[in-house]
Amino acid sequence: MTTYKGIKGLSIREIAGDPDPLATGDIWYSSVTAKIRGAKIPAGAWSTAADTNSSKHLCGCSGTADAGIAFAGNNGPFFVASEEYDGTSWAEGDDCNTARGRPAQNIGTQTAALFVGGRAPGNNAEVEEYNGTSWTESGDLPVGTERAGGAGTQTAGLAFAGRSDPGTAVCAETYEYDGSSWTDGGDYGVVAMNPFGFGTQGAAVGAGGYNSNPNIAEAYTYNGTSWTEVADLNTALYQSSGSGTNQSALSVAGVGLSQKVEAWSQAVTASNFTSS
């Protein structure tokens, strides 16, 4: 009979309870519950977090749940201001070079962010890089895109959904960036404008947006190849921004110049492998 030791080359360890911290993929025998247990990521949930200093929508957003940056956007005219988040409150950061809104969302970190595409007010393909202090121009997108979602880093980015021109149809296409060029990825789970995203190129979350007027509450995870539907937002939103990872993140502001923020949590937990 095939055994765990025969497959893995080691025995399952015995613990009085559960290991701390938990890591996805851990397997152990709990002497307390007398069961074989493992660590997994359950369905996530949203909760309220700190409001931004100023009302906005159509802004960019990058970073993590405790080190994020929201930049540019629209509060009447398009603007260039940035705000940095430390997990508790927001503070002013350096201005972007071009006043734009509707960029691809959340590509990079607070100190290495990408401002990708957008509208100013015409559609464009401009890209800017942030180094934690200032913004500089970078390589353009191959096609001008606005209202797309995004995730990943300056060298492994992801842009999905949106549209290429104010008069064109909404799409569900996904594009992956390797630091110098963009290639096609798996289509997003729904045709949408203004979804927001967070996470990495191979482990991203996309949520919200709108399509033919209704706001969207649906959320999806991306594994580097395809998108899978997960828990919905508490409030269907569009023109909002996201920041963080696929396990801990923020949904920032939204339509109607909202200051609403939701936090995403998808922590690793322990569960039994046996039923007796």
CATH architecture of the largest domain: 6 Propeller
Q: What value does the Rg take, in angstroms?
A: 20 Å
The first-level CATH class name of the largest domain: Mainly Beta
Distance between the termini: 21 Å
User: Under CATH, the topology of the largest domain is which?
Assistant: Neuraminidase
**What value does the average pLDDT take?**
79
Order of helices and strands: HEEEEEEEEEEEEEEEEEEEEEEEE
SS strand fraction: over 45%
Assembly state (oligomeric): single chain
Approximate helicity band: under 10%
Give me the CATH superfamily of the largest domain. Answer: Kelch-type beta propeller
Report the total helices. Answer: 1
Number of self-contained structural domains = 2
Structural class computed from helices and strand pairing: mainly beta
* Overall outline: elongated
Biggest β-sheet: strands ordered side by side in the sheet: 1-2-3-24
Low-pLDDT sequence parts: none
Q: What is the number of strand segments?
A: 24
How would you characterize the largest beta sheet?
Answer: 4 strands, mixed
Structural features, described:
The chain is an all-beta fold. The chain is built from one helix and 24 strands. The protein has two domains: 4-40, no CATH class; 45-265, Neuraminidase (6 Propeller). The protein has one helix at residues 4-8, and strands spanning 13-15, 27-30, 35-40, 45-48, 60-64, 67-74, 78-85, 90-93, 104-108, 113-119, 123-130, 135-138, 149-152, 157-162, 171-177, 182-185, 196-200, 203-207, 219-222, 227-230, 241-244, 248-254, 258-265, 269-272. The protein starts with a helix and ends with a strand.
